[in-house]
Amino acid sequence: MIVGVRGDMVFRPGGAAETTTGHPLHPTHQQEFIMANQQTQQDPQQVQQFQACIDACLVCAKTCETCGSACLAEASVAEMARCIRMNQDCAGVCFTAASLMSRCSEYAQSMCQLCADVCEACGAECAKYSMTHCQQCAQACKSCAQECRKMAGGPPRQKAA
């Protein structure tokens, strides 16, 4: 279970902290993270209601980062430039949404609405490609968009003409 997220760090029960890629943090950074997280921590029940969305955002962000890196190694990398940019944007928005929900920010709902929109766009772009990493990313984006819509409490926004 994740108790909090700050930037690219994940705080787990018992004081364990790691990067979102699963690498343990240096003890000095762990202590800084714990202190910062304690200053912003909200009612655990309130954070718990967001947990499914936080988890979906973190999975999506990690999957987008992986997909973007894999796209850079493809022979047709120039053709995949939009996909790579979308992966980067989506990962950034997902990390931010998870962070805002973790501290029960008043902006979490708005950020989740934006996150859902970005995830849908990234998922649609990744779905155009047959590579396994792109298909996995498209699925992670779809799942994250669904969780973010539930958290934000609304249907997809209409795109401007």
Q: Could you characterize what this model shows?
A:
Strands 1-2-3 form a three-stranded antiparallel beta sheet. The protein has two domains: 41 residues, no CATH class; 104 residues, Up-down Bundle (Substrate Binding Domain Of Dnak, Chain:A, Domain 2), CATH 1.20.1270.360. With 161 residues, it is mainly alpha-helical. The mean pLDDT is 81. It contains six helices and three strands. Helix 5 packs antiparallel against helix 6. This is Four-helix bundle copper-binding protein. It holds the Pfam family Csp.
Q: From the coordinates shown, what is the CATH architecture of the largest domain?
A: Up-down Bundle
Q: What is the third-level CATH name, the topology of the largest domain? A: Substrate Binding Domain Of Dnak, Chain:A, Domain 2
Low-confidence stretches: none
Major sheet characteristics: 3 strands, antiparallel
Give the spatial strand order of the biggest sheet.
1-2-3
Number of helix segments?
Answer: 6
Separation, N- and C-terminal Cα atoms: 42 Å
Computed Rg: 16 Å
Mean pLDDT: 81
The percent of residues in helical segments reads: 55-70%
The SSE string, one letter per element, is EEEHHHHHH
Principal-axis shape equals elongated
Tell me the count of domains.
Answer: 2
Determine the oligomeric state from the structure: single chain
What is the CATH class designation of the largest domain? Mainly Alpha
Q: What percentage of the residues does DSSP assign to strands (E)?
A: 5-15%
- Secondary structure class reads mainly alpha
